[in-house]
Amino acid sequence: MKKVTNRAAAVMILLALILVGMGVYIFRLVRDGGDWASFYANDSVYTNGSLNSGSITDRNDVVLATASEGGVSFADSSAVRTACLHVVGDINGNIGTGALNAFRSELVNYSFLTGTTTGGGTVKLSIDAELNVTAYNALNGQKGTVLVYNYETGQILCMVSTPAYDPEYGFDSTDSSYDGVYINRGLSATYVPGSVFKLVTMAAAIENISDIWSQTFTCTGSTTIGGQTVTCSGTHGTQTVEQALANSCNVAFAEISVQLGGDTIAEYAEAYGLTSSHTINGQITTAAGSVTSAQGDDNSTAWEGIGQYEDLVNPYALLRLVGAIANGGTVVEPSLLYGKSAGTTKLMDSATASTLSEMMSYNVEYHYGSGSYPGLEMHAKTGTAEVGDGTSHAWFAGFITNSDAPLAFVVMVENGGGGYAVASPIANTVLQQAVFG
Known about the structure:
It is globular and about 85 Å long. Helix 6 runs antiparallel to helix 14 (about 420-435) and helix 7 packs across helix 13. It has helices at about 1-35, 80-85, 85-90, 100, 105, 130-140, 200-210, 240-245, 250-260, 260-270, 300-305, 315-325, 350-370, 420-435; strands spanning about 45, 50, 55, 65-70, 70-75, 120-125, 145-150, 155-160, 215-220, 220-225, 230, 235-240, 280, 285, 330, 345, 380-385, 390-400, 405-415. The protein is an alpha+beta fold and about 425 residues long. The strands form 7 sheets. A 5-stranded antiparallel sheet has the order 8-7-19-18-17, sandwiched between helices. The chain is built from 14 helices and 19 strands.
């Protein structure tokens, strides 16, 4: 009798293990079935390594890519093919963040019940192909990126990275102008931010320096902090903190940074998502930035708060930040899928966001000139980030509050020069197209 009982117990244990295993398998099938079905080894949806079903369109139903047994074909227009290269991807999957790679399961139209037997699906992107063409042309052969999204809906309207090439014809791999061509500079690269980072330092000052609004700062072109010189791009005289941000005064922000301390600046950068990797639509992962606290070194702390030192920022992460400022402190997470929401994240106090918004508007009125952006209700910050080889990355980031076009943007031109001279006109060109057509 004891032997029978033991055998029965063993059978029950075995049955329980089988049921648990089946449960795990079913769970993983539901969760990961799309990834399994769209895996590159699946001959039913891949031919010679290329996806053979599905299509990608922009928000206006312009066909950007079509997969069939004959391979992948791209848009009819060479300009569209080139400008949308990084958002669509390439045939061989070298651009890992492209839609052809990121949304494979949607393209093969996988279903838990029918598998892939119903044929390929259509992935409709939030991108406006013609706006991408405008941005690509505005970059005019310079390496860089342009990102634009609706900060109220989260829809990404423009995502361009250069250099790019026409995927129908490829490029000359011996031509150095194509170096880094597979990198989506908006998503997969980090850069010294320069003065756009002063938005972070300013937010920290608003919340941590009680008398920041009554302080004044005198700039004679340079100052000595920690026994070393901090230089400025101009001689701004005596200025308020609002004027210091508009002037992008290094002297003023060096003094503010030392008051805050390196730890506080680094903590705010982390809280605002500038040191994190982000995920778009659960499929595309961005590069993480880094901001190192310059502990015990006032001169390095000064440069940390100015956006130099060891600061590195990903353009997409900066887009989230300016989108949050525009939206009262809460970022509507950007989405590349048309009509799909990606949720919201609270980044900062609403009062801080409101104050920064006002100061960014003041930047335009006081320093940049609203006439540079006709018809646009512009709130922005420039950045000219020195990179140690005698060149500077040009940045321009912000948002517009036109009632029919709540758009946030980031423009970054590698080794391009001054933010106002180089990046600002590109942003204006793209936003004029986005708002007025």
